[in-house]
Amino acid sequence: MTLVKEAPARPAGKRSAAPAAGRRGRRRENLAGYLFMSPWIAGFLLLTAGPMIASLYYAFTSYNLFTPPKWVGLDNFTTMFQDPRWQKSVEVTLKYVVVATPLKLLLALGVALLLAQSRRGQGLYRAAFYMPSLIGASVSVGFVWRALFSDDAVVDRTQKVFGLDVGGWIGNPDYVIYALVALSIWQFGAPMVIFLAGLKQVPRELYEAAEVDGAGPLRRFWNITLPMISPVLFFNVLLESIHAFQVFGSAYVVSDTRCGPADATLVYTCYLYQKGFKEAQMGFASAMAWTLVVAVALVTAVLFWSQKKWVHYEEAAK
Question: What's the predicted TM-score (pTM) here?
């Protein structure tokens, strides 16, 4: 008969000492993480979440910055939808989005296809094409663009851009919007870099197999390149559409009459600025802001819904 000697049982206090110490260590780590995040959390609550909640309340009030807000319910929204200038701002903004976004993405994709090929000085070319995006839609660029497209004695009246006489576009209600579109297209560096990253992920074996089968450049682009970079294309379409809805600086600076002439560049955010800060109608401006948020959210939802039909994630992953 073999006798098995049982090990002495550990005291209850010693058995739970290690897990308790581990929990205390995790709490200290979490506390340190929250301390490092506290500046961002404070900034988010004070500069983003707080103003958003306040503007949502002001959207249902009559508030002019000088008197306490007065609750008016949906009056701001009903007045806004009946306002001819608000309708004009929606029309101008939609025109800008529909024209500027596709042209910008087409140019970005075309240049990305050229830069994806190996050649000498490739880094220099990429930096040169990306440079305008680093400048951004600043006030200085707006004044330069205004001088380029204006009909002024200081500027030569025979400016030519791609063979077109652009002198006087700033003062012409029929053409001034295209000056803003040209400025947007000129700054195509950011989507170009994203397209370049997507093109680098396309396997070369697919192109080689297509060439063996006799596929030409256009067919390879349509059947291989576009499906493989469709997730990147979707990301650029989504991002650039949202940015186009928020255009303000170029419309305000480039036009010689501040979002004119004849409200030709009265984009949505420009009219929002006029109502909020020039006419001190903060309630009306808040209603406009939240309407824009809802509109952009709907456009985003439609794009996400449509991606099921033309974005190919599985093929891209292979």
Answer: 0.83
